[in-house]
Amino acid sequence: TSSVFSYREEEQELFVGGTDFVVKLNANNYSVIEVSNSYFLCRPCRNVITVIEKFQDNMFVCGTNGHKPKCWKLVSIVESCEGAGISPLVYTHNCLSLTVDGDLYAAAPLDIEGNSLQFRRKAGKRTKVWMYDRWLSEPTFISASWVKRSEDPDNEKIYIFFREKNSDHSPDADPWISRVARVCKTDEGGSKSFFQNMWTTFLKARLVCGFPDESLYFNRLQDIYVMHADDWRQTRVFALFTSSWNSTAVCIYSIEMIEKIFENSTFKGYAKEIPTPRPGTCVSNSKSLPRATVNVVKDHPEMVDWVHSLHSKAPFYVSNYNYTKIVVDRVQGADQQVYNVLLLATGKPRSICADLICTFQTLQSS
């Protein structure tokens, strides 16, 4: 089985979910504050906890619940609700969750075979919205992140990082393509007559990590760490990739660079004049978007241009170890300078003490 973690920084509390239980720990000394298991028991079945999120000022827990996903809101009286589309039916299936401004977003299969996997807005004050089936090909979702814009909240977006099966099946083609997609926080879906409850702002682009001069790429996205900045343009995305030749690479992207691709690239397979407003633009009322704009999103959501890393000629870091997880910490050195430090871990036991890689001053200014 696996464990899921949720850290509440303000309260200095760490929630850990396993099979049929959730434990709340004091994050300062890891002493147990509370053990909750009576709510989550599923006898004779197993309830593997897959989601723990802070949602509407409460902790929101979801689990497989014997192939009948269920969620619980941890208030004074524990409330339960259906968890389909939030927790997978099988704990090994791909899933992710994210809370944004009082809304819950999630990706989880809707059946025991792992089908109908897509990124949805599942609960909260805004309309429930989901994806058009043709947008993705057997995706594996890696991470989702809300990037705030204090000066322009109506233009805030949610970025989704994933890999999907390559439509090019030639022998030389990599079976996977790594992607970044985005949707507007204000997206409420289309009108009642067209694209109702579907994302009207969904766009996707290819993430490139490798040696472009040699046409050598790390194509399989494994993990993401987003380092937020006060200026949203400076927010950094640290992406961990693996390759077909069993090497690992770290590439770094800025949200500003990602946005430039979505705002300026042409649309793959679309040769007509780009309608106004441009497809993917955040508007106050998505239900009023012209059909011409929504049609481009519906049929041509992929960008022609690729998203290159800040160090475009080569990855920031390359290793022969098979890393699967990445975290970035900011630490003060003996010289009083603040440095970014990459922590990389493999999937093997006893690898929690990950390889320590010192970053450079150029990383802070790039």
The biggest beta sheet reads: 4 strands, antiparallel
Number of helices: 3
Listing every helix as H and every strand as E from the N terminus to the C terminus, the arrangement reads EEEEEEEEEEEEEEEEEEEEHHEEEEH
Report the end-to-end length measured between terminal Cα atoms. Answer: 40 Å
Summed up, the domain count is 1
Looking across the biggest beta sheet, what order are the strands in?
A: 1-2-3-4
* Shape assignment: globular
Q: Strand tally, please?
A: 24
Supply the CATH class: Mainly Beta
Rg is: 21 Å
Query: In terms of per-residue confidence, which ranges show pLDDT below 50 for 5 or more consecutive residues?
Result: 350-366
Average pLDDT: 90
Oligomer: single chain
Classify the beta-strand content into a percent band. 35-45%
> What fold name goes in the CATH topology slot?
Methylamine Dehydrogenase, Chain H
Helix content: under 10%
Annotated CATH homologous superfamily = YVTN repeat-like/Quinoprotein amine dehydrogenase
Keywords: Glycoprotein
Protein name: Semaphorin 7A (JohnMiltonHagen blood group)
GO molecular function, one term: chemorepellent activity
GO cellular component, one term: external side of plasma membrane
